């Protein structure tokens, strides 16, 4: 008698992709939370009109680790908070990947042969009246 369960391969705990994802999501979440704390505290200090840079740095160096440790201990004690944190890790990785993709897309310089060939074809076609008319007609009928 054969098993009627799913035939999809099960993810093992020692799967290198899962290990890398877990490490990346964990550290991205930690550093993202630290950055969020720093930003929020900086906003609060600005609202309180504390303009001195040395005072701001001193307050941030003391309060950020304290807030981070207090939050981590509360998350460790609350199972619902752990579940939320596990889900947030995926969102953090997706946001980081989207931000990286947007940055790379905005700063991408396409110096490939195909791009140069396409630019040359467009330039050559613009100099030939029949080619330009055919391209314009094609573009207008699309």
The overall average pLDDT, rounded, is 80
The largest sheet is: none
Count of individual helical segments: 5
**Spatial shape:** elongated
Series of secondary-structure elements, N-terminal to C-terminal? HHHHH
How far apart lie the N and C ends? 59 Å
Helix-strand blueprint:
Elements (H helix, E strand, L loop, with lengths): L15 H32 L5 H25 L1 H28 L6 H15 L1 H13 L1
Please tag this protein with its features.
142 residues, mainly alpha, 2 domains
What does this structure look like?
The chain has 142 residues and is mainly α. It folds into two domains: 16-108, no CATH class; 110-142, no CATH class. Helix content is 80%, strand content 0%. It is built from five helices and no strands. The protein has helices spanning 16-47, 53-77, 79-106, 113-127, 129-141. Helix 1 (16-47) packs across helix 3 and helix 2 (53-77) packs across helix 3. The longest helix has 32 residues, at 16-47. It starts with 15 loop residues before the first helix and ends with a helix. Mean pLDDT is 80; it is low at 5-9.
């Amino acid at each position: 008698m054969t098993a009627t369960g799913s035939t999809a391969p099960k993810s093992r705990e020692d799967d290198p992709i899962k290990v890398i994802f877990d490490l990346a999501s964990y550290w991205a979440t930690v550093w993202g939370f630290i950055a969020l704390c720093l930003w929020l505290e900086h906003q609060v200090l600005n609202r309180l009109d504390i303009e001195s840079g040395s005072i701001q740095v001193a307050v941030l160096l003391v309060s950020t680790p304290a807030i981070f440790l207090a939050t981590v201990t509360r998350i460790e004690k609350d199972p619902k908070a752990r579940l939320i944190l596990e889900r947030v890790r995926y969102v953090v990785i997706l946001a980081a990947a989207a931000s990286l993709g947007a940055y790379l897309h905005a700063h991408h310089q396409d110096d490939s042969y195909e791009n140069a060939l396409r630019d040359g074809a467009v330039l050559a076609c613009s100099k030939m009246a029949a080619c330009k008319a055919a391209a314009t007609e094609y573009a207008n009928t699309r």
